[in-house]
Amino acid sequence: MVAPDPASAPASPPPGKPPSGRFGRLLGRPRLSTLLLAVNLILLIAPLSGVFAMRLYESALLRQTESALLSQTAFIAASYRAALERNRTSSLDGGGLSHPVDPAFAVDTSKGEPWRPRPPVLDLARDKPLPPAPVPRRTPSPTHWLSEAVGKDISPVIVEAHHFTLSSIRVLDHRGTIVASTAENVGQSVAHLPEVERALRGEIVSLLREKEEFAEGQRGFNAFERSSGIRVHVAAPIILDNRVVGGVLLGRTPSTLRNALRSKVQIFIVGGVLLVVMAMALSLFLAATIVGPVSRLIHQAKLVADGRRSGIRPLRYPVTADIAELSEAVVAMANTLETRSAYIREFAANVSHEFKTPLTSIQGAVELLRDHAASMDEDRRARFLDNIAKDSDRLARLVTRLLELARADVMQPGGAGESRLGALLLDLQRHYADLGQSFGIERADSDTGIGAGGEDDIRVSMDGDNLASVVRNLIENALHHGKGEPRLVIEPATAQVRLRVIDDGLGVSPANADRIFSAFFTTDREGGGTGLGLALVKTLVEVHGGQIRLADRAEGCEFVVTLPRLSGSVASEAAS
After folding, report:
1. DSSP string for residues in 451-468
2. How far, in Å, CA of 7 to CA of 285, rounded?
3. What are the angstrom distances between the C-alpha of 77 and each of 89, 90, 177, 327?
4. What is the pTM of this model?
5. Is the distance from CB of 73 to CB of 248 less than 8 angstroms?
6. What confidence score (pLDDT) does residue 408 get?
7. What interhelical angle do 32-87 and 265-286 show, nearest 10?
8. Residue among 165, 164, 161, 250 at smallest CA distance from 207
9. Per-residue pLDDT tens over the stretch 262-282
10. Over 50: is that where the pLDDT of 396 sits?
11. Of the candidates 530, 423, 518, 513, the residue with the CA atom closest to the CA atom of residue 476
12. 507, 510, 516, 518 alpha-carbon torsion, rounded to 10°
């Protein structure tokens, strides 16, 4: 860009604020997406943790029921053994009331170990409920009188226990026949049940069955209570002298979540209040970390829209990296708009001044000619006409240069094309020679100058039209201000090439050196200078990634243009 248009220059950080990469991202500052993800995860974890806790609590209720049934089976088995000892006589011992325990489940009592704990094992997530238990069957042979006597002996005990535990209790003999029960099914057989078969082999069995009153397709399962509509069944053997003498079959409906949570209403109220408080805290957190900074950004954007661009600074506490970048982008935009606005005002004022002077001269000459053309002599009339022509030419040059400068200002970097510097300079040398003007061309790394064949020519990253415009403006400037023949010196390097344009004129004073590339600045206004040539050169060079400067020189003037160089030669590339 030209010197008075610093719109493309990066905005400097405000005092006291260290630069921190692209738009000032600070280490450790979270992204806005990270913040929103964290909040959403918290809101998701809250109900999920509640559901998980409910599932754990439901399984705990199920295992509590199983544990209670296991305790009851141990008590009933002990009662059965005691009743059997009371009713049995030595003459009836071994009279077919028992059979050995399956070796896989045998109980070793040889060491006199009294402890045989059996923890609950049921799990709603793992154990699938079986269909309701089949009804008991009739037995083909009558129950042994001793088993019947023992059943009558313990019946009051299990009925009393049933009133308190609400468990269905059935006491079986060694064949699976019911000898005592809380229902009207004494004398019937349940040996066909899988859990009874395993219990009579000496194994303690726990399983889940659907309730009898729930038909297929109408089970009491739902997303909130998985244990509704099922019963816990426990079957355990009654072992005496390492032989199975009977069994116990218990069933009970576990407590549901609905019933268990009725006594915990206060806990739920407290939990609900905590969830509301957490939601409010998250809302305040989002308001402080997102809504607040965004609101302040909106206020800054409105100030920019109202034209109050000065004094806008990045947010002091942007919290997130996204908002920090957006805040600094708004500040950079405000600074760019302010700079561009100042440049446009200055540019418009300069254009108005530059156009006003020749227009005023033309208008005055036209008025004089219109009013006094008849009385003027030929010399005076010709002088006025020459002034009009000269001012018209100046206006035409101004319009042409302004259009060129406008195109250069909006030119995008990249895709600059390429051109051969030596060939272009030779073409310009021949063109100016046809006009009766000349300049010398030298190459710093060669005594023979530039080869006419172009095999060793230097390629630069700029298209031919723009490069010709740059060189032509510098040559015309040197021809206009120099006394003798200007010199163009090429200094090639590995990554760039330097072109020095030297004349032997009066040079540029130190006071004007800093303004030499400013638009509309010229020291030769009387000679028709527009003050736009060097500004155009600077814009074209910089937009193509190069640089131009005025070198310090004791006599004359020297401009140094540095352009990116392309590797290889045109000829070698064409051959490849």
Report:
1. -TT-TTPPEESS-HHHHH
2. 38
3. 20, 21, 15, 79
4. 0.44
5. yes
6. 66
7. 170
8. 250
9. 666 777 788 778 877 887 887
10. yes
11. 530
12. -170
Other C-beta atoms closer than 10 Å to the C-beta of 463 total 14
Cα 398 to Cα 73, 190, 391, 530: the distances in Å are 111, 114, 10, 6
What is the maximal distance between C-alpha atoms in the chain?
170
Domains of the chain and CATH, by start: 54-108+116-255 (3.30.450.20), 416-575 (3.30.565.10)
Task: Give the contacts of 130 (CB within 8 A, at least 6 positions apart).
Answer: 207, 208, 209, 210
HSE of 1, CA atoms in CB hemisphere, 13 A: 12
Nearest to 457 by CA among 425, 484, 414: 425
**Distance separating the N- and C-terminal Cα atoms of the chain:** 37
Length of the chain measured in residues: 576
DSSP 151: H
Q: What is the pLDDT of residues 190-247, one digit of tens each?
A: 999 999 999 998 899 999 888 876 544 444 444 445 556 788 999 999 988 888 889 9
Tokens standing for residue 204: 């303690």
85 vs 26: CA distance, rounded Å: 85
Alpha carbon distances (Å) from 461 to 451, 457, 467: 20, 13, 9
The rounded distance, in Å, linking the Cα atoms of 496 and 567 is 9
Contact present, 250 and 196 (Cβ < 8 Å): no
Q: Minimal CA–CA distance to 445: which of 487, 511, 497?
A: 497
What does the alpha-carbon distance between residue 539 and residue 405 come to, in Å, rounded to a whole number?
8
- Say if residues 458 and 450 touch (Cβ distance below 8 Å): no
Tell me the two tokens of residue 313: 């600074």
Query: Of residues 259 and 339, which shows the higher confidence score?
Result: 339
Give 32's contacts (C-beta < 8 A, 6+ positions apart).
290, 320, 321, 322, 323
